[in-house]
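To illustrate the input format used throughout this study, we show a single complete record. The first block contains the structure-token representation of the backbone; no residue identities are included at this stage. The design step must infer an amino acid for every position from geometry alone.
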């Protein structure tokens, strides 16, 4: 099939979906701009601090802006976080104590948390501090409500983790309406259990924040959605003020918490990234919708379908063939702005059990909001694609990646 003609057809059929995405972008653009105005963001907030980071007015203003945008009481937004997984780890160690139990109700967490929790042995894990871990798998891509409520009645759970995005799994990502429903049921049994949401890849996709439907704390990376492809590193934790204070003391040290941590010149890029985030997330979603349409029409299993509700910016493409997975990822890399002459090959990666192949021709190392595509070298050989700073750059890369897998 002629890819160029298929793209024209796709854009015609996807026009109503693109319009919905534009409406969500407009909503978040207003929300972000209002937060900037309410906090009186000015050029002096770009100034940097070093050393201890005392009296960093820009850093503190950033955290108030993020709290407004994410609908939380407080936020911890720091370039000292090296990743979303680092922020998740910090949160877990901040909120859990020996003999506490953490319960995941979305099945096995993302690979990089396995050694944090102790699913995979590590002398620095939560398990090594006698913190218990249990999980309840999703049932037909939905919460297993009966099993969750039964568990809560049987024993005291300190923290429930919900990972919204699918990670390297075949399950669907979790919509806000489903989170709202399960939280209401959980609160009928235990009003005090901490509900923690791994919100990576999900920000600005749906208009409602998990904090508005009863979650206590949410975590995400700044080299994903909210960094808008401009923030060079960092992550955020947002939610209940008392919990954010504990996380700050774990990241830094007890007694100093939120009051220390030099911005080292990152304030401008974090603010500018958040400002551009609604547009960049919208472009990423449009790229994902186009990818889904094209690959499905070419006979591949995709998730979500192009016209399904989306919880995140990730598109999963099942190739059922190792070589096709590799070729597609290589096609994305060769149409990236950075390192386009690099040929990705499967290789071991810290925090993962399987070899990973990854296309990330990005201005910031590992930036998923810039068009990236990766996957583990294991059956059924799924590529997980996300990002796209602009729709047209994303379209060009996807079209050429498809052409790459169609080569003899």
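Output of the design step:
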């Amino acid at each position: 099939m002629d890819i160029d003609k298929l793209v024209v057809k796709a854009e015609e059929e996807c026009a109503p979906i693109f319009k919905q995405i534009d409406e969500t972008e407009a909503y978040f653009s207003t929300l972000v701009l209002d937060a900037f105005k309410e906090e009186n963001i000015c050029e002096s907030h770009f100034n940097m601090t070093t050393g201890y980071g005392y009296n960093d007015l820009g850093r503190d203003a950033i955290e108030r802006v993020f709290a407004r945008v994410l609908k939380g009481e407080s936020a911890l937004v720091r370039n000292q976080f090296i990743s979303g997984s680092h922020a998740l780890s910090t949160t877990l160690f901040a909120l859990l104590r020996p003999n506490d139990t953490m319960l995941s109700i979305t099945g096995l967490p993302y690979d990089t948390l396995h050694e944090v929790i102790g699913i995979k042995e590590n002398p620095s894990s939560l398990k090594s501090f006698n913190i218990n871990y249990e999980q309840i798998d999703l049932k037909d891509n939905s919460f297993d409500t009966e099993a969750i409520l039964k568990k809560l009645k049987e024993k005291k759970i300190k923290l429930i983790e919900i990972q919204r995005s699918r990670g390297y799994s075949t399950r669907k990502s979790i919509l806000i309406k489903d989170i709202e429903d399960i939280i209401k049921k959980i609160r009928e049994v235990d009003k005090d259990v901490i509900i923690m949401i791994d919100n990576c890849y999900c920000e600005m996709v749906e208009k409602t924040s998990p904090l508005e439907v009863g979650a206590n704390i949410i975590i995400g990376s700044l080299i994903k959605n909210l960094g808008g492809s401009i923030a060079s590193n960092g992550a955020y934790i947002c939610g209940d003020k008392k919990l954010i204070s504990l996380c700050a003391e774990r990241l830094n040290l007890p007694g100093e918490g939120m009051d220390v941590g030099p911005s080292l010149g990152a304030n401008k890029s974090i603010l500018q990234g958040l400002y551009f985030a609604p547009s960049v997330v919208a472009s990423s979603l449009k790229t994902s919708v186009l990818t889904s349409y094209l690959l499905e029409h070419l006979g591949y299993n995709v998730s979500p379908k192009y016209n399904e509700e989306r919880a995140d910016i990730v598109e999963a493409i099942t190739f059922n063939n190792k070589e096709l997975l590799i070729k597609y990822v290589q096609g994305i890399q060769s149409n990236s702005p950075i390192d386009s002459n690099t040929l990705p090959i499967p290789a071991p990666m810290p925090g993962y059990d399987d070899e990973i192949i990854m296309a990330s021709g990005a201005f910031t190392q590992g930036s998923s909001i810039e068009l990236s595509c990766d996957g583990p070298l294991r059956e059924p050989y799924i590529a997980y694609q996300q990002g796209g700073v602009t729709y047209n750059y994303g379209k060009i890369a996807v079209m050429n990646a498809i052409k790459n897998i169609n080569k003899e």
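Structural context for interpreting the output: The first strand starts at residue 74 and ends at 78. The radius of gyration is 21 Å.
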